């Protein structure tokens, strides 16, 4: 039972319904995404399809190991996201897209639904796990959001692993930058110091002719009924001028609130997701009585009307995850104490 029931008759109905909710819902639950976009069956080879599914499964395994052993939703979403940050398939941590200047600038956020604490970082260049930095901001600083070199310095000061910026380099993302800048008629920057020689990296990822976001995120409910959300990204290819998207903006790309009964992580056109305050709005819809799926779908439709494509994962207090998208695909997965792990890529998969 997720609340302490007294013998008071006045509480009977509440206790009964809580016990009932637990009987029918999972004790813990986790959902993840690895970005949304134009992802069609024809755009992935069977090997690439399998590689993405294996990566998603690995992230579910990491998060569910935490939840299964009684760990917190916060630890679970961090574990799942960190694994995807290390995976070059995703646009977060290693494998992040490049800025027009040829750098990787990383954004991330976490939020704890049980007490509304939150932390975020933007424009990191040397911290290996941006989601860990976001959590450190939340737990070990008096602030909510840190940016740029100051954020990296803070992360280093609390002992988080620092890497050479070349650590984040992938050939595929570099070629994506070259293509984007060439199409835009903009200058191509020098290949970054520390990057492997051209052709040195084996590529399992799809070719670059599809429009796809690739941000990663996770939402979870733990066996104490706590909700949490985390999101991490390299942002948009060829971004300039210190551009920051929705991911580290609490309420846009990331939000969690036990009071509202929701945890949300988004992926998509950040500029529109910020303007639509996607994650907070979904929680407000749920607080107002909407089901998680309906709330996610309505909000994604609103962002779409503004001009922004993408997707969201939503976790409710019942432990039933919801996925909504306005794109042809979203790398995603879910697992709970009652349901085996499942992963999906294309919009028409269950
Ligand atoms: N939402 C991210 C951003 O705008 C991009 C993504 O989801 O891939 O930075």
Overall geometry comes to globular
The secondary-structure element order is HEHHEEHEHHEEEEHHHEEEE
Helix content: 25-40%
The biggest beta sheet, please? 8 strands, mixed
Bound molecules: aspartic acid
| Tally of helical segments | 9
Radius of gyration: 20 Å
Structural class per helix/strand content?
alpha+beta
Distance between the termini: 30 Å
Strand content: 15-25%
Low-confidence stretches: 1-22
Strand segment count: 12
Give the overall average pLDDT: 91
Sequence of strands across the biggest β-sheet: 4-3-2-6-5-1-11-12
Key features of this structure:
alpha+beta; four-stranded antiparallel β-sheet; 350 residues; 12 strands; disordered N terminus
Structure, briefly:
It contains 9 helices and 12 strands. It is α+β, with helices and mostly antiparallel strands.
What does this structure look like?
- Helix content is 33%, strand content 22%.
- The chain is built from nine helices and twelve strands.
- The strands form two sheets. Strands 4-3-2-6-5-1-11-12 form an eight-stranded mixed β-sheet. A four-stranded antiparallel β-sheet has the order 7-8-9-10.
- Strand 5 and strand 6 form a beta hairpin.
- The longest helix has 23 residues, at 46-68.
- Bound molecules: aspartic acid.
- Aspartic acid binds at residues 35, 91, 213-215, 233, 235-236, 245-247, 253, 267-268, 270.
Write the layout of secondary structure elements.
Elements: H1 12-24, E1 29-37, H2 46-68, H3 73-86, E2 106-112, E3 117-124, H4 130-140, E4 145-147, H5 148-157, H6 171-184, E5 216-221, E6 227-233, E7 254-257, E8 262-268, H7 270-275, H8 278-287, H9 292-306, E9 310-316, E10 321-325, E11 329-336, E12 342-346
């Amino acid at each position: 039972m997720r609340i302490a029931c007294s013998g008071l008759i006045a509480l009977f109905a509440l206790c009964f319904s809580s016990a009932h909710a637990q009987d029918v819902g999972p004790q813990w639950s986790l959902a993840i995404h690895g970005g949304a976009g134009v992802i069609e069956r024809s755009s992935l080879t069977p090997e690439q399809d399998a590689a993405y599914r294996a990566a998603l499964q690995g992230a579910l395994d990491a998060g569910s190991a935490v939840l299964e052993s009684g760990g917190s939703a916060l630890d679970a979403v961090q574990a799942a996201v960190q694994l995807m940050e290390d995976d070059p398939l995703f646009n977060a941590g290693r494998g992040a897209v490049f800025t027009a200047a040829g750098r990787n600038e990383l954004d991330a956020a976490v939020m704890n639904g049980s007490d509304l604490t939150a932390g975020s970082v933007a424009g990191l260049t040397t911290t290996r796990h941006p989601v860990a930095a976001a959590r450190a901001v939340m737990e070990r600083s008096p602030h909510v959001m840190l940016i740029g070199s100051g954020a990296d310095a803070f992360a280093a000061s609390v002992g988080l692993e620092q890497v050479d910026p070349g650590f984040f380099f992938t050939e595929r993302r570099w070629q994506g930058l070259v293509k984007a800048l060439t199409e835009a008629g903009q200058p191509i920057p020098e290949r970054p110091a520390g990057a492997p020689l051209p052709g040195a990296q084996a590529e399992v990822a799809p070719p670059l002719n599809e429009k796809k976001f690739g941000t990663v995120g996770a939402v979870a409910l733990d066996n104490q009924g706590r909700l949490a959300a985390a999101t991490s990204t390299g942002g948009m290819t060829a971004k300039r001028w210190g551009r920051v998207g929705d991911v580290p903006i609490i309420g846009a790309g990331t939000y969690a609130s036990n009071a509202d009964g929701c945890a949300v992580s988004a992926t998509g056109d950040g500029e529109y997701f910020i303007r639509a305050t996607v994650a907070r709005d979904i929680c407000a819809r749920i607080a107002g009585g909407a089901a998680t799926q309906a709330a996610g779908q309505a909000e994604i439709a609103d962002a779409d009307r503004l001009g922004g494509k993408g997707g969201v994962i939503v976790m409710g207090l019942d432990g039933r995850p919801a996925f909504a998208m306005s794109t042809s695909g979203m790398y995603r997965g879910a697992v709970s104490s009652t349901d085996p792990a499942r992963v999906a890529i294309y919009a028409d998969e269950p």
